[in-house]
Amino acid sequence: MKSTTIFVCNSCDAQSPKWNGQCLECGAWGTLKEARLRKEVSRTGAPAAGTPGDVTAFEAIPASAERRLASGVTEVDRVFGGGVVSGSVTLLVGEPGIGKSTLALMLCSRLAAADKKVLYISGEESAAQVKLRADRLALPQKNIWFLSATDLETLIATLEREKPDFAVIDSVQMLRSDEIPAEAGAVGQVRGASGRLVAWAKGANVPLLLIGHVTKDGAVAGPKTLEHLVDAVFSFEGERSHPLRVFRSLKNRFGSTDETGIFEMNDAGLMEIKNPSAYLLDARRPDTPGSAICCIIEGTRPILVEIQALVQKTSFGYPARKASGFDGSRLEMLLAVLAKRGGIDLSGHDVYLNVAGGMRIKEPAADLAVLLALASAFRDTPIATATAAWGEVGLGGELRPVTAGDRRISEAAALGIAQIIAPPSKTAKKKSVNAHIIEATTVRDALVAANLTQGARSVLHA
């Protein structure tokens, strides 16, 4: 064995052949620590040769379905792809206080109620704290065992002895091993602990759920290797001021990444929302200017949301542009299109945009509804009752069709939407529902259809 001295950054895991006061990759100060890089060499000085492995033809590999544990939580099983796969390692991330531990404890309770042995391991909370949460949520606690530990060796030894059917580790950033010369939460510790846990889970065929932190930008905290090591990465999102929570799949080796689960956080814990559209539109006032309905796609599920806009003359030299639940840069672009192609100039007005209910819209299908809400607020004229709109807006003012037109139309019709304004779509089956569909090819066409401007229609037909 031949060893070489290198220096590794505890913050970003970057390697350097010599010590520096500042890491050249992430810019952190005083984070470079000495490490030994060992390389096995032969007597001649060349790298030692390994033993060839056995290869198998793909056509000779037997195909077998994964064994899954159904949690009994419909919204969670939907995102998992039917249940938790045996031997899989799942990473659940989210902002502090969003409800990750509550969701994990609810999963433990449901699995334990199905006669599964569940082990809950916490390095952040004591047994009394976790017990109080379970009592407050009135969760059944039979077959649930608790371990308070942050030492990786102790944790793996306990898992090996107990052999649970399902285990939760809260959180992976709290784990540390004496074999890794770094404090808990460092890049090397997180990567090393995760790698050993994955190896144990695969060997013991026990599913593990790792709870992780996120950075201030919303990204998964720790090394990027962490996301590659685990089998699935799920995020738990929502606004603290709103009860709505979205369980979203970011990576899933055993299922689709196009599924989402919707929950409501209340005093009794997390409640599944079977009909998100009705839930989000329940408190809407249809006669309010600046309110528009849009159908978005969360995973494979169509959801109707209300987009609210407020426009008023600015009191300062530079108008305000504020958006909640919608991308601020895209709002700026849509305001420019509305001024140039729609004839409504809001350069001297403050603009406030909000997606009601705490939802966050990322797809461009909401562009048209945003423009109609802005025009409605500017004209101080409400959009016709039971009207929905969706479509991507281009810089030329053209409206582009979006995916899943059939599902959007069906969801809107099921919630009592009588009129739909959308760009022409070759795949949407307009005859299958009772809603009146107005096809608009430009922004001005959509404004005319919603009675928010004056002008002739170019191509409008049912």
Write up what this structure looks like.
- The protein starts with a strand and ends in a 13-residue tail after the last helix.
- Strand 7 (118-122), helix 3 and strand 8 form a beta-alpha-beta unit.
- A nine-stranded mixed sheet has the order 8-7-9-10-6-11-12-13-14, sandwiched between helices. The protein has a four-stranded mixed sheet with strand order 15-16-18-17.
- It is built from eleven helices and 23 strands.
- With 462 residues, the protein is α/β, with parallel strands linked by helices.
- The relative contact order is 0.09.
- The protein folds into three domains: 2-39; 68-274, 3-Layer(aba) Sandwich (Rossmann fold), CATH 3.40.50.300; 278-449, Ribosomal Protein S5, domain 2 (2-Layer Sandwich).
- Residues 455-462 have low confidence and may be disordered.
- Helix 8 crosses helix 9 (367-379).
- The protein has helices at residues 74-80, 100-113, 127-136, 152-162, 187-204, 225-229, 276-281, 328-342, 367-379, 405-414, 443-449; strands at residues 2-9, 15-16, 32-39, 68-69, 84-85, 89-94, 118-122, 144-148, 166-170, 208-212, 232-237, 244-252, 260-266, 269-272, 291-298, 301-313, 321-324, 349-355, 387-389, 392-393, 399-400, 419-422, 436-439.
Helical content, roughly?
A: 25-40%
The global form is globular
| Order of strands, widest sheet | 8-7-9-10-6-11-12-13-14
The mean pLDDT is 88
- Strand percentage: 25-35%
State the CATH architecture of the largest domain.
3-Layer(aba) Sandwich
What structural class results from the helix and strand content?
A: alpha/beta
Query: Number of folding domains?
Result: 3
What's the CATH superfamily of the largest domain, by name? P-loop containing nucleotide triphosphate hydrolases
The level-1 CATH class of the largest domain: Alpha Beta
Report the end-to-end length measured between terminal Cα atoms.
77 Å
Q: Radius of gyration over alpha carbons?
A: 27 Å
Low-confidence regions: 455-462
Q: Specify the number of helices.
A: 11
Strands, total number:
23
CATH topology of the largest domain: Rossmann fold
Largest sheet: 9 strands, mixed
